[in-house]
């Protein structure tokens, strides 16, 4: 039987007390939740549309659209914190006790926080770059700085420069990609949400909050992750350089690391076949059925 993996054929809605969460669903089997990253014009569909059909052959695959990115309703507040709350509401709303999770960049941080704070709800965790912290490379990374510049003054040229920082192969930055990202990124409500997270003022406030006496960053709590974890990374990631992987690789008890050559921040897109193969093998291991 052919699985419908079209945009309109998979789009669903979940109504919550804070607004509507939209998501894409395809396939049957154990639930697999895909969580997207941040950045100009990002959506869950754009991050994972190329992978949906592959994983839907094995799992009930769900791509959640975070609030504030122009697809789900904007719940207000800081997009990272809102996303963490939205994931719990989403799982509760669909009656899902536990899931395997794949998180790209910001989505990886959200997924990791879910695994830390609600360990029984994550049976396997896959991250794509993003988590940890810079040890040897300057922080924030080049891609984050370009994202901040775009958020402060959104121009097409700055968008293109940021997109090039996301990939190893510049040929991936096509006119079609630029146009669809530009249209979404310059939507007033979406841009307002981005500024809550990546404006210079927002980044300065986050840095200040991190110095509070009672502040415990998520990366210092990685030892609490009980789920088997696969860290995936592009060797040439200019957003979250590879030295960021050292802390999660060491602190997460069940973590292993897979590095893709000739690959930037979007491993699931730029090294699609290798990424899908490695992740599927990890997800289908015996531990998945033993939890």
UniProtKB/TrEMBL annotation:
<dbReference type="InterPro" id="IPR050266">
    <property type="entry name" value="AB_hydrolase_sf"/>
</dbReference>
<keyword id="KW-0378">Hydrolase</keyword>
<dbReference type="Pfam" id="PF00561">
    <property type="entry name" value="Abhydrolase_1"/>
</dbReference>
<feature type="domain" description="AB hydrolase-1">
    <location>
        <begin position="30"/>
        <end position="270"/>
    </location>
</feature>
<dbReference type="InterPro" id="IPR000073">
    <property type="entry name" value="AB_hydrolase_1"/>
</dbReference>
<protein>
    <submittedName>
        <fullName>2-hydroxy-6-oxonona-2,4-dienedioate hydrolase</fullName>
    </submittedName>
</protein>
<dbReference type="GO" id="GO:0016020">
    <property type="term" value="C:membrane"/>
</dbReference>
<dbReference type="InterPro" id="IPR029058">
    <property type="entry name" value="AB_hydrolase_fold"/>
</dbReference>
<dbReference type="GO" id="GO:0016787">
    <property type="term" value="F:hydrolase activity"/>
</dbReference>
<dbReference type="InterPro" id="IPR000639">
    <property type="entry name" value="Epox_hydrolase-like"/>
</dbReference>
């Amino acid at each position: 039987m052919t699985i419908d993996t079209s945009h309109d054929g998979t789009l669903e809605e979940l109504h919550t007390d804070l607004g509507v969460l939209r998501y894409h669903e395809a396939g049957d089997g154990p639930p697999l939740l895909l969580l997207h990253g941040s950045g100009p014009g990002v959506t869950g569909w754009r991050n994972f549309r190329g992978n949906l059909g592959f994983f839907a052959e094995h799992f009930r695959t769900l791509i959640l659209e975070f609030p504030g990115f122009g697809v789900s309703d904007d719940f207000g507040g800081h997009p990272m914190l809102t996303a963490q709350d939205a994931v719990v509401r989403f799982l509760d709303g669909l009656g899902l006790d536990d899931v395997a999770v794949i998180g790209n960049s910001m989505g990886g941080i959200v997924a990791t926080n879910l695994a830390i704070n609600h360990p029984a709800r994550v049976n396997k965790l896959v991250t794509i770059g993003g988590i940890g912290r810079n040890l040897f490379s300057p922080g924030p990374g080049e891609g984050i700085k370009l994202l901040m510049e775009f958020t402060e003054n959104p121009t097409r040229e700055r968008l293109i420069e940021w997109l090039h920082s996301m990939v190893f192969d510049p040929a991936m930055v096509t006119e079609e990609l630029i146009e669809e990202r530009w249209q979404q990124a310059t939507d007033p409500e979406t841009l307002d949400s981005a500024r809550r997270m990546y404006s210079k003022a927002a980044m300065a406030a986050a840095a200040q909050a991190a110095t509070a006496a009672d502040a415990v960053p998520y990366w210092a709590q990685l030892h609490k992750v009980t789920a088997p974890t696969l860290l995936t990374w592009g060797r040439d990631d200019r957003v979250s350089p590879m030295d960021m992987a050292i802390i999660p690789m060491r602190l997460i008890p069940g973590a292993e690391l897979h590095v893709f050559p000739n690959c930037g921040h979007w491993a699931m897109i730029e090294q699609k076949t290798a990424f899908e193969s490695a992740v599927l093998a990890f997800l289908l291991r015996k531990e998945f059925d033993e939890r």
